[in-house]
Amino acid sequence: MKHKIVVEPPGQNARTIIDTMSRNCYNSTFVYPLVIEDGEGCYIKDVDGNVYLDFTSNIGSSPLGYKHPDVMDVLKEYSNTGVHKIAGQDFYCREHAELAERLLSIVPKGFKAFLINSGAEAVENAIKIAYRRMGALPGVSCINAFHGRTLGALTFTFSKPVQKSNFPELPVKRIKFCSSDDDPEIDAVENLLKENKVAFIITEIVQGEGGYNVASKRFIKMLREYTSKYGVPLIIDEVQSGMGRTGRWWAFEHYGVEPDIMAVAKALQVGATLYRRELDPGQQGVLSSTWGGGSRIDLAVGAKIIDVIRRDNLLSNAERIGGIILKALRDMADDSNGKVVDVRGIGLMIGVEFISKEVRDSFIINAFKHGLLLLPAGIKVIRVIPPLIIREDEVQEGVELMYEVLKVI
Ligand SMILES: Cc1ncc(COP(=O)(O)O)c(C=O)c1O
């Protein structure tokens, strides 16, 4: 397959759908007028027949791309199953057991799993587990963090003012997210924990929505060292970076640390809070999910995704192809007349920073018109997060499209 623009987007079919949505729905965070119809491999087809190369993976939720044969087999299997959405915290099902078992085989030893629906819910339960142990003390999160939009998680999100205005917050303290080992604020955590009692520290390893900022190794090691010293649970949010995106199952594996609690979602298809057994709330009913803990189909697809990532060595693919993209985009930055100011990332989680928000926004819209899907992060960054199955020739196609786009912005 290849990208193909047959009618300038949005075509008539897309317009009709967007008009209906505009009249009836809240205008959330739509970036450009893509109306998705179908997909295959690393390509998405819109309702007017345009085919786009997808460098978004729907923010990491489609690690095997689209119409992957193994996933299609699961969907076929469930096409005759009547009870697919169950009260999954009240009744048991095989899919829940199998996904939990798979997850526990890829996280640090001695963890337990709690399955829910989304990333925000994974974070909500992570912080509940910490509060339960530590009491209703302030939590600590990083500047530019994103941990979700439900009200509890939102307190610890700090990436864009628009996400928070007028919304009340839980008690919180914030620290700088340090990307450089030389950052003068890198040891702020030591004083913070010496002088304050807190319930937890929560952080990403690569800040996603905040701008694809990669944590300094020393920063993460210090967070681990001082949270251990003061007996404070360290929560690592792997909702965007997890499940192989960085070339390891979890981004924290690149840092030689292990969390006490972790939040997972997106590529998993459902949400999961994973925690050290010692932190188990014990008493029944302390935790439960919103509705059901994921549909049975999503649970089954999530388990299949883990199997396929393992069977097809997609962690190595993410590392290898990620290296190729990183180099190609750094070359592009050199050729960009200063429009691209930085390229950074781990594996297939790569951010490209532009000179300004205006240039970045124009790049994204023009890429869309050329047949390449990209999404923004932070103020002036785009994320390059293709499906983990991407091949070298598809990378080349994407990079060529980006060069074309640079010429017109
Ligand atoms: C790091 C991180 N945490 C939490 C969330 C929230 O996940 P969800 O959108 O599934 O609620 C996101 C979503 O982008 C995320 O990137």
TrEMBL record:
Cofactors demanded by this protein: pyridoxal 5'-phosphate
Transcription recorded as keyword: no
Molecular-function annotations in GO: identical protein binding; N2-acetyl-L-ornithine:2-oxoglutarate 5-aminotransferase activity; pyridoxal phosphate binding
InterPro entries: Aminotrans_3, Aminotrans_3_PPA_site, Class-III_PLP-dep_AT, PyrdxlP-dep_Trfase, PyrdxlP-dep_Trfase_major, PyrdxlP-dep_Trfase_small
Top-level EC class as recorded in UniProt: transferase
Residues in the signal sequence: none
CDD domains in the record: OAT_like (cd00610)
Keyword terms: Aminotransferase, Pyridoxal phosphate, Transferase
Gene3D superfamilies cross-referenced by the UniProt entry: Aspartate Aminotransferase, domain 1, Type I PLP-dependent aspartate aminotransferase-like (Major domain)
Entry's EC annotation: 2.6.1.11
UniProt cross-references to PANTHER family, sorted A to Z: AMINOTRANSFERASE CLASS III (PTHR11986), LEUCINE_METHIONINE RACEMASE (PTHR11986:SF58)
Family note: Belongs to the class-III pyridoxal-phosphate-dependent aminotransferase family.
Protein name as catalogued: Acetylornithine aminotransferase
